[in-house]
Specification:
Strand content: 15-25%
Largest sheet: 8 strands, mixed
Distance between the termini: 33 Å
Number of helices: 11
Radius of gyration: 21 Å
Structural class: alpha/beta
Shape: globular
Order of helices and strands: EEEHEEHHEHHHEHEHEEHHHEE
Oligomer: single chain
Length: about 325
C-alpha cells in the first residue's frame, strides 16, 4: 500500500449560533497522499485550505467523514498512542513568530520535542542531533544560535528553525501552511529549497498549502485546487498547470505571472468577489462567477470525474 493518508468525504462545518447559520469550511473532500510525495493545495483566501490542514494534523476534528493514516483512522491512533501520531505528523505554520514561546531560547525550542519523544539519551546527545540537523539545513555555525531567543532572529531564520524542529522527529508527513507568505521575497526561495531538500532527503510526504501557484508548481508532485471547501480539480502538477480543465483552475492559472516575460497569456477574469461558505448549493459553488455556467450548474453540483489517468475535475463543461 503506497497511500500514507486517505481522506473520505471529509466535512468541517461550523455553526454561527447568533445568526443560526452553518459555515461549510470543508465540504466533502476526498483524496489520498502517497508516501514520499508532495501535494500542493491552492485556492483563494477563505477557500478552506488552512482548515483542511488543521484537520490533517488533528488540530481539529471533522464534522463528518474519515481521515486514515497508514490504514487506521486518526481518532483511533490518538486514543491508543497520541505521541506516535504527533511524531509522525508535523505542521509548519504561516507566522514563525507565533510558533514559539518567546521565553524559550533556541536550544530549548529544539531539544524539548526530542525529550518528549524520548529521542537521545541525554541533553548533550539531543543537542548534537539538533546541531547536525541545523548545519545540514545551512544554519552554520549552529552553536551560535542556541542561546538566542526567537525575537533575536529574522523571520527567515526563525522559519528555518521551525522547519528543522519539525524534521527532527523524522515525521512521515509535514503540513506546511503558507510557510513563506509572511517572509521577505528575498528569502522565500531559500526557505522553499531548504524545505524541499529536507523532505526529499528523508522521503517525507508533505502537504504544501498556498495561494502562490508558481511556488506550488515548483515544489509539488500533485496539485489540488480548492474552492469554497471543495476540491474542484486534482492531478499531477504538470497536468493541472499545463492542461487545466475546470473553469476556476483555468482562471487562476491565467492570472498567474509567468517566468517568461515574452509569453502571451489570455487572462480570464473572474466576476465578483469570492462568496462566503454559508448557504452554498445545491448547484456548483462557482456558478455565479463562472464564464461557462448554465442553468444546469445552478441546480446540481457536478460529480468529480477522471478526465485522464490521475487527473480529476468537477464540472459539467470540462475542456
Amino acid at each position: 500500500m503506497n497511500s500514507l493518508m486517505r481522506l473520505n468525504n471529509v466535512v468541517k462545518w461550523y455553526v454561527e449560533k447568533r445568526k443560526n447559520q452553518i459555515i461549510k469550511a470543508v465540504d466533502g473532500v476526498s483524496f489520498s497522499i502517497d508516501r514520499g510525495t508532495i501535494l500542493g493545495i491552492i485556492g483563494e483566501s477563505g477557500c478552506g485550505k488552512s482548515t483542511l490542514g488543521r484537520l490533517l494534523i488533528a488540530l481539529e476534528n471533522p464534522t463528518d467523514g474519515s481521515i486514515e493514516f497508514e490504514g487506521e483512522k486518526i481518532e483511533h491512533i490518538l486514543k491508543k498512542n497520541p505521541l506516535k501520531f504527533r511524531r509522525s505528523c508535523q505542521m509548519i505554520f504561516q507566522n514563525p513568530f507565533d510558533t514559539f514561546d518567546p521565553r524559550d531560547d533556541i536550544e530549548k525550542v529544539l531539544t524539548t520535542p526530542l525529550k518528549v519523544h524520548n529521542i537521545g539519551g541525554s541533553q548533550e546527545e539531543r543537542l548534537d542531533i539538533c546541531i547536525k540537523t541545523m548545519e545540514d539545513a545551512g544554519i552554520r555555525p549552529a552553536m551560535d544560535y542556541m542561546n538566542r531567543y526567537p525575537h533575536e532572529l529574522s523571520g527567515g531564520q526563525l522559519q528555518r528553525i521551525s522547519i528543522i524542529r519539525s524534521m527532527l522527529l523524522n515525521p512521515k508527513l509535514i503540513i506546511a501552511d503558507e510557510p513563506v507568505s509572511m517572509l521577505d521575497v528575498s528569502v522565500r526561495a531559500d526557505i522553499i529549497n531548504t524545505l524541499l531538500e529536507l523532505t526529499r532527503k528523508r522521503e517525507t510526504s508533505m502537504v504544501f498549502i498556498s495561494h502562490d501557484i508558481a511556488t506550488t508548481r515548483y515544489i509539488s508532485d500533485m496539485i489540488a485546487v480548492m474552492y469554497l471547501g471543495r476540491i474542484v480539480e486534482m492531478g499531477k502538477t504538470d497536468d493541472v498547470i499545463h492542461n487545466p480543465k475546470h473553469p476556476y483552475t483555468k482562471a487562476l492559472i491565467s492570472n498567474c505571472a509567468s517566468i517568461n516575460p515574452l509569453e502571451k497569456k489570455d487572462v480570464i477574469k473572474i466576476a465578483g468577489e469570492p462568496p462566503t461558505p454559508i448557504g452554498t448549493g445545491p448547484g456548483c459553488y462557482f456558478y455565479e462567477r463562472c464564464y461557462k455556467a448554465s442553468k444546469k450548474c445552478e441546480k446540481s453540483y457536478p460529480d468529480m470525474v477522471e478526465i485522464e489517468k490521475g487527473h480529476y475535475a468537477s464540472c459539467y463543461y470540462l475542456g
